[in-house]
# Entry
Amino acid sequence: MIKVSNLSKKFGDLEVLKDISFEVAKGEIVVIIGPSGTGKSTLLRCLNYLETPTAGQIHIGNVTIDAVSHKQKQVTALRQQSSFVFQNYSLFANKTALQNVAESLITVWKTPKQNALATAKEILIKVGLEDKLDVYPSQLSGGQQQRVGIARAMAAKGEVILFDEPTSALDPEWVDEVLAVMKQLAVEKQTMIVVTHEMQFAKEVADRVIFMEDGYIVEQGPPLEVFGNPQHQRTKAFVKRALKQS
Ligand code: ADP
Ligand code: MG
# Structure
């Protein structure tokens, strides 16, 4: 279970997150939508302390951390509860697909190397990359690199996988294969928080859609409600535009 309470984040005078609170149940798929510059990435980054929030509490799995009094030990523990899939993959260029996926098992979970590599191989087979195990990122297509990125997040064994626009940097031809892997994870009830502009994915896969604007959660609910019958004018305007583009 994930519980975020009264989270705020300032960069200097710029208040990017304003008193954000929400919960995510185990196995739930939450999609966050909203205009760019709204704080979606900052929110995800705060969830794993890639950014340090200015105030508020985050509870994930068995870790609770308060921005004002956080300790490095808690940050380390919190980071083990989630893993990130980045827009630009952020793979280790000097490691093979297999080594990229095995890395967290070896360094974070202290899994013996042979076991870690065996697990990494299983996961790469699952995302359809059984023939790319020993290939370096530069020799993979964007879609394949992002599938390695997702495999790496799966290997990290956290409570939740955080996706920040995982298909936004991809050529259109690679988008579907990445979304297919994410849909498979959803079927398996992997808890996920996904920031995306893929409205069709949100409609099909999300249990809940959160609409953010200007550092606030404006509205949230099942996709049928947020897309079909938005309650707030700002949600209406955004959804209308977003659906037209998708
Ligand atoms: P989104 O992901 O919704 O597009 P972001 O979370 O990336 O929005 O950014 C929200 C706001 O915070 C923007 O105004 C952005 O310029 C600002 N911002 C993000 N990261 C930083 C940073 N490291 N330092 C200063 N401002 C930042
Ligand atoms: Mg962003």
User: Anything to note?
Assistant: The chain has nine helices and ten strands.
